Amino acid sequence: MNVCVIGTGYVGLVTGTCLAYLGHEVVCVDNDPQKIARLEAGKSPIYEPGLEALLEHGMSRGALTFSMGLTEAVRAAEVIFIAVGTPPLPSGEPDLQYVEAVARGIGAAVDDARTRVVVNKSTVPIGSGNWVEMLIEDGMTVSHPLPAGTGALKAPAPQRPRFLVASNPEFLREGSAIGDTLFPDRIVIGATDSEAVSTLRGLYAPLLDQSFEAPRVSPRPEGMRSVPLVTTDLASAEMIKYAANAFLATKISFINEMANLCEKVGADVTQVAKGIGLDTRIGNRFLNAGAGWGGSCFGKDVSALISIGREYQYEMEILRATVSVNHHQRQRLIQKLQEALKILKGKTIGILGLAFKPDTDDLRDAPALDVAQQLLKMGARVKTYDPIAMSHCRQQHPDLEMVYAENIEELAAGCDALVLMTEWEEFKTMDLTIVRGLMRTPVLLDARNALSPMACQNYGFHYMGVGR
Ligand SMILES: NC(=O)c1ccc[n+]([C@@H]2O[C@H](COP(=O)([O-])OP(=O)(O)OC[C@H]3O[C@@H](n4cnc5c(N)ncnc54)[C@H](O)[C@@H]3O)[C@@H](O)[C@H]2O)c1
Predict the structure, then answer these.
(1) Which of 128, 169, 251, 307 allows an S-S link to 124, with CB 3.0 to 4.6 Å?
(2) Whose CA is nearest to atom 15 of ligand 1?
(3) Does the beta carbon of 242 sit less than 6 angstroms from any atom of ligand 1?
(4) Residue whose CA is closest, atom 12 of ligand 1?
(5) CATH of 2-232, one of 3.40.50.720, 1.20.1640.10, 3.40.30.120, 3.90.190.20
(6) Mean pLDDT, the chain, as a whole number?
(7) Closest-lying ligand 1 atom to the alpha carbon of residue 46
(8) Is residue 154 pLDDT above 70, yes or no?
């Protein structure tokens, strides 16, 4: 099928690249000229394992192209994905200006009477499917004024384009986005029109029946034979995305709350997590106590759900607590450093890892940045090292006056404490003897419970984890 993906960020670029891998003809559109230039040169603007290999695969066959021209790409497409950002506004509501601009642009672009499916992959508030439909209609009205006596989007006048809007929420995780896209737990399609569902079922057929050959960069999980398809109405699909993220964020806040109590009563939260995680009703994932959740989605989606609740005079009490526990979890790290070092002013603290999780360069709502900011405010000297995210950090946060180290050793030199904020593999296997020897005082705050407390203590560290 001819596919157009608008927005080449973490979601759009991975979606477009994987659809091209599955055999579709894909044009990825973005209005950022630097991104498009980089992509046309075969370079990914984001760090995502396996992505550049698949980009190369798609581009070399001519199945994957990049463009700034929304109009031509929309005209040629049977399926159009909207995958632009929906960042949070200060009020907690998502900023829908990019979705709005794209939806109007789609409506205005088309000059024939074909039917196209517009798929919303951006995470948008409940009801946005209908809103997008309205905006496309507005866009069309500019380019194709209605003849007298005709009206609705789905009952087109002759020669008018026809758009069917669907919601197809995205569940990929940065760092494992290729595998999550090619081997998802489920595909959700929300639509009011059965024709839209059947088009998307066709588009996703190779994924649903897992009939494609898995790429070398992302082998098929053992035993995976098919993917469940969940078809719903528009509002339910939009709600599924928010509910999934809210549940996962709550699970993390839950285990962090347990961790804080474990510290008081002398229990070990990693053992507690194992003990409860083996219960299949609970499951063992998202039960790692630590610095709390971050990233581009959890905070924004939980806040959006709270504000949607308020629009309907409903207080989302569990979600408010989820946010509050997460906020305190970051504060707790500062308190732990204070307990160990007493005065932070004038001390040198080394931060191991900036990205909100390993295997990504994404710094949006990264706990490490919050901790760094607070330490700087308190008069500490902050050094940092991250294997991938440092150049993004320099560009995006020029105000953070941190010293950037080239490697772990350079970071550790002269530090009064190290804080492990991102569990990169490199940190889990670092040479503790060398690190210990370079530090001024051997305080190690393992904010991800990524290291063995016993090993760290044996190497002479004053080790602090979370809830253990
Ligand atoms: N990042 C994730 O892990 C993830 C996971 C699931 C869902 N989502 C959702 O997917 C959506 C996209 O997220 P992302 O992380 O990929 O965002 P992103 O910020 O990385 O990318 C968005 C892209 O859209 C482009 N863009 C903005 N306006 C445009 C326009 N008018 N025309 C063309 N391009 C335009 C931007 O230049 C940018 O490249 C969001 O709604 C997000 O909540 C993200």
Answers:
(1) 128
(2) 10
(3) no
(4) 85
(5) 3.40.50.720
(6) 95
(7) 20
(8) no
